[in-house]
Amino acid sequence: MRRGRLILVPNTLDFGIAGAAAPLDDLLPRSTLRAAAALSHWVVENAKSARAFLKRVDAVQPLATPVQGLQMQELPRPPKGGKASIPTEQWQALLAPLRQGLDLGLLSEAGLPAVADPGSNLVAQAHREGFEVLTLAGASSLVLALAASGLQGQSFAFIGYLPVEATARSARIRELEQRSRKEGQTQIAIETPYRNQALLEALLAALQEGSQLSVSRALTTAEAWTRSARVADWRRQPSSLPGDQPAIFSWLASA
Amino acid sequence: MRRGRLILVPNTLDFGIAGAAAPLDDLLPRSTLRAAAALSHWVVENAKSARAFLKRVDAVQPLATPVQGLQMQELPRPPKGGKASIPTEQWQALLAPLRQGLDLGLLSEAGLPAVADPGSNLVAQAHREGFEVLTLAGASSLVLALAASGLQGQSFAFIGYLPVEATARSARIRELEQRSRKEGQTQIAIETPYRNQALLEALLAALQEGSQLSVSRALTTAEAWTRSARVADWRRQPSSLPGDQPAIFSWLASA
Question: Taking all residues of chain B, what is their mean pLDDT, rounded to a whole number?
């Protein structure tokens, strides 16, 4: 029997905001839309937004199985407060369609699944069971932000979220700035949108004035914005960051 | 006068190999093709492959300026052997169209410019001169490989190339493995294709048997391949890596 494949399907970067306006082939390549339209079984970060995405797919590339007929499971959320992990059996159960020879799609709310987003445990389980894993072409906001920053793109680290507590956050920013200086490595972090402004201020307070800081938001949309400048310039002429969309923060110490 | 914008244009990941076969809207979103087709001035990694790319664009989205009428400059190559950098005046000269109010495209041979590829100095100069920088939507092979690996995608570092000399390379691999263990950070490296097999063997010799290693190649093409497994499993059942295309190597130490 043919073995199913786990297929990582990129979502757009607009969180469906431009949903009504832009046809989906404006934002994703045709090959990605065709492969997504062929899938009947899905594991998704959020079922509601996944159905909205698949309706947008259907409008440019008719789905093989209508939206209401799709088999869709949500990724389990990590148990609150604590390091308890999700039992392997749960990942195995989500992969059941693969064992029946069916391809299974994995979809996030934005961008690529399993990068700065949940899903890597499911991918790891698929590899452990010897299933083929494919990624379709699509954009990642982290990497677009790095490209737009003009900072070192031959060596960079994505850190994820910084500590929320002010002292720990400053210490972490300085530690990463030191590494950036020593290794010439751009450091990249993200933040929950409503804390965008607070993180920007923390970075401007903690980084040295000769370091470079870049902030990007709403990339690939009509509101796309990137500012990349020395910390001294940011301080002299501050920007305010709206809290409606994720922002991506990159910094690089001067050599 | 309207100020020009520096527009980062993603290329496909197939190095033009699938050129004859796949129409370009199969591989890149329409909005990217439209924006690329509107540009008359370019800075590119390689003029020959850039013209081939723009002919592929033209076939699905007619160019505003025919290929032979495009103004195209190549990115300067870093001076050989030595840390001498390219003088600022050269970057300024490349940006001349922006000062005339013209948009300027930046294009690599594959994937996104300025990420694991030249171009970031040009982007940095554009920011210094206060020009707007935009990135169009497109894929990066690094991030697709990370997604397909199932390794930690909430914290990762792209290292670039490892040392070629065997002792230095092993030492560097072990150092990065230690960081990976301490920080839970996936480490990602690339290699010149003809050294793919040598790097794979070096990784299998230097990494601990409980660490995870993932190798991807030819992503988004019909030959796409990812293997992600424990080092012990790779050793028991080796894979051989062809040297015809770049491969991406990711590893993560067990906690």
Answer: 93
Residue with tokens 């970060």: A45
* Domains identified in chain A and CATH numbers: 5-135 (3.40.1010.10), 141-252 (3.30.950.10)
- Residues of B with Cβ-Cβ distance to A75 under 8 angstroms: none
Which among A121, A139, A156 has CB closest to B139? A139
- Measured between CB atoms, does B39 come within 8 Å of chain A? no
CA distance A14 to chain B (A): 11
pLDDT, tens digit (0-9, with 9 covering 90-100), for A88-138: 999 999 999 999 999 999 999 999 999 988 899 999 999 999 999 999 999
Q: What share of chain A is helix, strand, coil (3-state, %, to 5)?
A: 35, 20, 45
A88 touches chain B (CB under 8 A): no
Count Cβ atoms below 10 Å from residue A243 Cβ, excluding itself: 15
Give the tokens for residue A188: 């990249």
CA pair distance B206, B202, nearest whole angstrom:
6
Q: Which residues of B touch A156 (CB under 8 A)?
A: 157-158
Count Cα atoms within 13 angstroms, Cβ side, for A243: 7
Mean pLDDT of B114-133: 94
The larger pLDDT score, comparing residue A245 to residue B15, is at A245
The nearest alpha carbon in chain A to B116 belongs to A154
| A164 touches B: beta carbon within 8 Å | no
pTM value is 0.95
Give the span between the Cα atoms of B138 and B32, in whole angstroms. Answer: 8
Residues of B in contact with A227 (CB under 8 A): 127
A232 in contact with chain B, both atoms CB, cutoff 8 A: no
Q: What is the ipTM, given to two decimal places?
A: 0.95
Residue with tokens 């002299």: A236
- The number of residues making up chain A comes to 255
